[in-house]
Protein 1
Amino acid sequence: MSEAIMMEKPATLSRDDLRQDFLDQSPWSTWNVEALKADASFRCYFRLTSGNSSVLLMDAPPATEDLDAYIRIASYLSECGLRAPRVLAQDLNHGFAVIEDFGFNTYTVLLDKGVPAEPLYTLAVDSLIQLHKAYGKTNIDVPRYDAGFYDDEAALFVDWYMPARLGRKLSTSERDDFLARFASLINSVNTKDECLVLRDYHVDNLMLVDGAEGVNACGQLDFQDALIGSRSYDLVSLLEDARRDVCPEMTERLLEHYLAEMPSTDRASFLRDYRVLSAHRHAKVIGIFVRLCVRDNKAHYLSYLPHVQQLFERSLQSPHLAPIAQWITAHHPDAITKPLVFDAQALRELLV
């Protein structure tokens, strides 16, 4: 059970002041504080240290982040046998929590050091197998990954990337046609064997926890936006990573490993869903990266675009994606992989 820290503070206080007040009332008030590198969300983290001990402080502004969902899903993952950080203290009203620190060995760091990839990825797939087998044995109240979520995500491609490519907004009919084509494909995704979908299940959000064994060694970091949806989705996130090349032969081996461990899964249906959701995710991420540049002034995300463009183009080679490939042929100038060049300020004035 985590400690609840209650603060009654004026609404005019800054996040820095609120965060300091939270720490002052906690057992970690005298510990050293180090800000950690921010990601694409509005959350930020700080490492608190004292001697050889450390914990993490999560700053999750309530206006944009759902700390309650993080805590509930962390508990659920632990009940399912996965390694989620223990929540040691919390203030839900102001969006602060102190959580377990898994250390420094993110998958990204380990892979960049040359640690063999396949054992790490196999452990991550085994964690998904554990999660998918455990689903239904305990309750979790989160929304379904329904048509509304999928439509909003597909819209990111046509609302942000396509204007950057064309220098204009799409017409209503062009936009609606794209969304209708993807909606038709998504509607055929299997809903019989749904499970908890973590959504951002990739190497930046996974850690190798020292001293742990089995799936307990695979630390989960980013899951507060989890939904109930297709079992194939998190495998797409992991094996078709928007920021890192993943060996295609290893991907095939890991998909076969997953299917072998889930013998009741309809292979053809699962692989079809995998192809459809990979194309959908890549289209979404392409739109997000453009939006991060234009709306949020985070232009460094554009450095990942060429890789995701390649993934999207490859995904469109599947016969299942013919309707989307046909739309791209009709409305997208040149190849998807052609470098994207645009005026961010002009696009900001057009779209924001």
Protein 2
Amino acid sequence: MIGSTPSKRAPRRRAGALLALVAAVSVAVSGCAGASLLPDPTPTVDPRPVPGEQGNAVGLAAAPLRGTLVEPGSLTRPSLAAKIDNHVEARPHIALNATDIVFEELVEGGITRYVAVWHSQLPDEIGPVRSIRPMDPDIVSPFGGIIAYSGGQDVFVGMMMAAPVVNIVFDYDDTGLYYRADERPGPHDVILRSAEAVNRHLDLPAPAPQFAYGSATPLAAESYAATPTSTINLRFSDERWPSWGWNAEGSVWMRSQEGAPDLEASGAPVQSTNVVTLRVGIDWSYGEVPKTVMVGSGEAWLSVGGVTAHGTWSKDSATSPIVLTADDGSPLRLAPGNTWVELIPDYGIIEFLP
């Protein structure tokens, strides 16, 4: 599906013949050091109380993509997913801390990009946005709603257009939803007016819950065999090796990239309540473009509250959510809050330090 009708003319290109790429979101924009957040018109609600919080859940509902308690009927809008650039020249990103869920994936050249999903909060702008890749339909289809990207190879764009989401594509948009930030180097300069994009599609339903949520310390039971973790070291390639450090004072994981603190355009450190690490296969049938294999199963780790538990992940189809299962067979429940999902290739490095 496409959200903005493609113009009759050929897609606009940068001077010199560029821009078959699209993306998600991640750059600072002039005058937008820290994109403001609009009040939620109405979020969709998971009617189930958050396990462990039942005493506080009276009259409240759970945000579907965060598990946090919200007023019933306050999150009825659709989710917005966007392909976000993670080239060094695309940093700092815009409004990553306002996301509900972020997936980090390997792309060509050993670097990574993000599929970032906003729902509980809706920033005015996000970026920088870049082009689509072959695994992205399998990532975004369970959310429904909207996907924003700059473009991409025809075969990948066709795959995304066939997914059950509304496509908002920079190459095709002539309605002013996107602009290029003058202070950003191209092609890492495409910014989406995200609040306006969502407000054009309030007829779409809210997303279904993607993970199970528990209390603020969901791994406290001995059956999870969770181990204390101060640092999570990950390596996608020699080009990309992010890490997460536990901040006990803030009860969050703080992100670094290639040894340096990862900061938003606002100057705030990028942080997450939950870090989900999945061991995934890579399909090389698209030449130099790696496709993360999302339909299947593999090893999984959930890091929350300064500890990590091992388990497995599974995903039955493109439209199915990821299911996390502990080694004892019980569900791996996340803490209410935002989540980063690290899709580490089967040849990559995953390390948890006490």
Protein 3
Amino acid sequence: MTATTAGATVDETRADVPFNTQPRDWRRGVIIVLFCLIPVTLLVVFTYVPFGSMIGYSFYKMKYIGTPRWVGLDNYVQVFTRPDTLSSLKLSLYYMVGALLQVALALYLATVLSFKVKCGNFFKAVYFFPYLINGIAIGFIFKFFFTRGFVFDSVLQWCGFDLKSLPYWLKDQRINNWSLVGTSIWRYLGQNVILFIGSMMSIDSSLYEAAEIDGANKFQQFRHIILPGIKTILVLNVILSITGSLSAFEAPFVITTGANGTATYFVLMDHLAHTNQKVGLASAMAIVLLVIILICALLQKLLFAYVFRDADDGTQKALKKAKKMEKQRRKLQRRNAALFRDGASKSATGKAVA
């Protein structure tokens, strides 16, 4: 009795599956493969093949013209022993501190703008506009902005400061790197603000209403509603900002050309590769930088996973469980019933019935 019922159920399920009256169009599959083949080919040819070649170059002492000479791991040893490479890595700490300040300021501004603020759209546009400007153009703007006696010094003189008491913003090694960090913050702040605002807008407004009814103030709403709700974008912004600080290039290259102790790791690598033509050493520096960025990204991910370990109220676990159950249900359904029945089988069935 049970077997008969189960067989009838399977037959009913198969009966509900529609016939595939259209023949299989092999041309559609070819078109899909061709459309995928073009971008994948471009990616492999212009990204992965040069990257593999760069790994090979890092084991040679070579120039752009001439016969390369195998040196093994000597280039990697030089990366960690040369004073200029170590000092350029230390400069990344300036930009890391600036990146953290940038994310914190962007989070504050985005939180303010996420609530009802007069001229909110205007301020969003103002914050995001610097990100749209080309990096080289921004470099030239701030090069004249920080030049002695120009814009920044003139503004400070209007505020009552004496020009002789002001430092050389791009020459004084106590402050020139902070000037470049400020330029970077000014450019990328708007991007972080917009990403945070977009994430905050996806939070259900009823949560704020319930929190206000319970007597929660704005800080408590930020701590218990906004911060857990945007943790994914927060982690993304921090990772992008920290990894970007390790590869700072445009501002120090255009504004100071790496002079007066402002040569970052990327600027030094460019100088070694294109001026000194130490292609093997520059390739080794690029590989080391990639490893450092991957390690930093992994550490940040583990850190935020620990920080937000108690931020989940059970919703994410319930969603994962529901998705797993739905996946198992679909797998069982595919096992018990075919997706399509061929048109030929329909005619055969009709003849059999006749």
